[in-house]
Amino acid sequence: MKIDLNCDLGEEAGNDEAIMPYITSANIACGFHAGNEDVMRATVKLARRHGVNIGAHPGWNDRQNFGRLEMNIPAEEAEEIVFQQINALAQIAKEEGLALTHVKPHGALYNQAAKDRTLAGAIVRAVKRISVDLVLVGLAGSGLCEAGVEAWIRTAGEGFPDRAYNPDGTLMSRSKAGALIESPEEVAANALRLIKEGILFGEKVVQVDTLCLHGDHPQAAKNAKLLRGMLMKNGIEVVGLKK
To answer: What is the pTM of this model?
Structure first.
């Protein structure tokens, strides 16, 4: 059994160096909801040092709310917003001798695209403008993954061991109590359940291809170390998305 382990980084949460040795994919903020050119370059270099795949983590242009406030804008504008961010990181990666592996939307953009097929389509078009070889990471079972499959690009269904789910398979809003799982031991146990049992999304069970840890979690570094060790003990191989 194999799984990719990713983390949202480049968001200046202060945990990147401690987390990077334990993951296989880094989702790097592209300057809109967090980060800037210098932070992107530093995160790319850190990922290169540890042999970690790099991907773009585009969000709404909303630093004040860390990209977690829903926005409703025309699909063409949303596509351009996402394209600009992916392209910015792709250029930095190229200068550092690397290429992007994947794209994973951030925050409200991610959650909206899970249900809004028009927005999901805009994201898919932005990804394809960069490269049809990029992997699109989305909530396992969601409309974003379905849009990627329909557009003939590779997708990876994502599970969240440090977040609570709604009964329909979507993520519980961070505004609700219990939405963030705080115990590293519980995060690790939840990860194992997600890998072995999948997620009940609507009426179907979907398997996860990658697990996400949040770099701004209060126990981010401990979560990463404990989870990586737990996967190894259970005979689960941790590999990058394209391996």
So the answer is: 0.95
Copy the structure tokens of residue 135: 């992997």
Q: What sign has the CA pseudo-torsion 164, 166, 171, 174?
A: negative
Domain span including residue 43: 2-238
Answer yes or no: is 243 within a domain: no
CATH (domain of 16):
3.20.20.370
Residue 108 domain flag: yes
* Each residue's pLDDT tens digit, 108-132: 999 999 999 999 999 999 999 999 9
What dihedral angle (degrees, nearest 10) is formed by the CA atoms of 110, 143, 25, 70? 0
Tokens of 118: 């028009």
Residue 128 falls within a domain, yes or no? Answer: yes
The total number of structural domains in the chain stands at 1
d(CA 37, CA 84): 13
Output the pLDDT for position 113.
97
Cβ count near 152 (within 10 Å): 9
Segments in 105-219 forming alpha helices (H): 107-115, 117-130, 143-150, 184-197
207-216 per-position pLDDT tens digit: 999 999 888 8
